Amino acid sequence: MSDHPSTYEPKTGVEKWLDQRLPIVRLAYDSFVDYPTPRNLNYWWTFGGILSVCLMIQIITGIILVMHYVPHVDMAFNSVERIMRDVNYGWLIRYVHANGASMFFFAVFVHMFRGLYYGSYKAPREVLWILGCIIFFLMIATAFMGYVLPWGQMSFHGAVVITNLIGAIPVIGGPILTWLQGGFAVDQPTLNRFFSLHYLLPFVIAGVVILHIWALHVTGQNNPAGVEIKSKEDTVPFTPYATVKDGLGIILFLMLFSVFVFFMPNALGHADNYIPANPLVTPAHIVPEWYMLPFYAILRAVPDKFLGVVAMFGAIAVIFVLPWLDTSKVRSMRYRPVMRWFFVIFVVVCLGLGWCGGQLPDDMVFSIGTSASGTPIGLNYVWLTRGLTLYYFAFFLIIMPWIGLKEDPLPVPASISEAILADHAKKKG
Amino acid sequence: MSEPEKDHGTVVGEDPNRRDFIYIAAGAAAVGAVGVIAAPLVSQMNPAADTLAMASAEFDLGKVSEGMQVVIKWRGKPLFVRYRTPKEIKEAEDVKLSELKDPQADADRVKKGKEQYLILVGSCTHLGCVPTFGAGDFGGWFCPCHGSHYDTSGRIRKGPAPLNLAVPEYEYLSDTKVKIG
Lengths: 429, 181
Ligand code: HEM
Ligand code: FES
Hints:
By secondary structure, chain A is mainly alpha-helical. Chain A has helices at residues 13-21, 24-32, 47-66, 76-85, 90-117, 126-148, 153-167, 173-181, 188-219, 238-263, 293-301, 305-320, 339-357, 381-406, 416-428, and strands spanning 36-38, 235-237, 364-370, 376-380. In chain A, 62% of the residues lie in helices and 4% in strands.
């Protein structure tokens, strides 16, 4: 809350001296110690802190990897293998970085679904939401370029397929593709620039995160009740309440993270990426990392090359404009009995898209027999994907605006403290 | 600053047009300068001189046996050199152009008198994967990435790829030797 007066009192002489010159301790105190936090936040709200930890982990492990990694087509693969075998604790650093990307995306997906469910994108938090979408988009770009660096078979052919998406744009696509690849194929210039940008973008993300938190502290946090803070009774100070809750969330998250790093470090990767890149042979089944699969599925659902690319980027673009698609007066889906079911279906559809993205399009989901010519009859993955894609877009473009107008929301509590008291009464009675 | 200001005793706002002119000129100069500075920063990402000076490749067709293909690397991409069987050539020639997504006669994709040798850029016109030799519904190639089928002339027959596999520029140096590029 911007109208929250600063309560910071510099105690020592040094603090007083600094406060008059650069009130940075005051800023930190007001933002993370005495900051008024809605008292009804649940554990879905710990993912913001978790995401900050993820970004720090990626930057620290990334900078260490760069100390040993060589961005050259003849040496990249071997330098990563050397990190794994010879560099002291290199295996740990790389497994943390590689699995860290997956954990980062897992956390950001939870964070985004949280925002969707509790209406955190609605006025006055549109800019906050859009900044989050920008971070998400930058994360996708960063992770894609990072995945190219080890220069295995999946790295190389993934880079070929994804850069060629740009080539699908009519007229200007070709020249842009050449400009992006720095040649007429994915090769040394491409690897070199992806390395440069993979180093840069996380710091850009860090910058946007600062804007994101700034915007958050201007509007104040949303909360499960979806009503704004009205009085002091509605809040608790950030420290110790939110810090401790976030801390527990982070510890649980790091435990999950450790299970992957120490017990199944390659479970989320693809075995083909341990084969050095060979431009002459494409792996039989090329798939992106799991966190890109829903978007990859949408790309493949559309038979036309250019329109497929439009649909894939559209699937991300539509999230940006969500604040203007939702017509409901009620923020939190807790009080939206109809919409919450469409939300549940939406989550299932997103998971379904991810699943389809990892399958071969012509394979059968189930078959109910075979035709005379021996081809199976039933539902194949392309058609399942098309159905799911349709729901994905309909959710934003039709269901959101329409249900918002039609639905009868449940009574919304007058304030956060009232919502909590009502909860308590329900539990007792 | 629409109101005339008086300083140093002179009337500055006497001629507002002169002031507007200075703003516009300065603005235009700034935009121009940004453009001039941005141009090299953007253009450095285009292929460098050594990348553009790509060597042409010579290939001895004697290395390919009938019914097989050899894949060589050319300008960072795979190049297919296929020695077609008479049956494959006939299949390619017999297709009606009206059946094709990207209509082109087989004769336009090979050199006259050398119909058995088909030389193609081995990069799928969908998103650039390398199609698999001999697979697919049309006996040519099959792209594993998103399921494009090419015939024995390398023409797209089924799947998301929009165009035929590209024929690079090449010439025969002798009966069995070609220079590509
Ligand atoms: C948003 C934060 C980041 C994400 C999501 C991310 C993601 C990735 C991914 C997915 C890989 C491929 C891992 C593999 O399969 O081997 C990778 C590799 C790499 N990243 Fe990052 N990264 C991030 C930040 C950074 C930073 C800040 C640096 C350097 C300062 C860096 C340097 C590297 C290097 C050198 C590699 C190649 C070595 C390897 O493959 O393990 N990364 N990154
Ligand atoms: S790249 Fe060949 S079908 Fe997509």
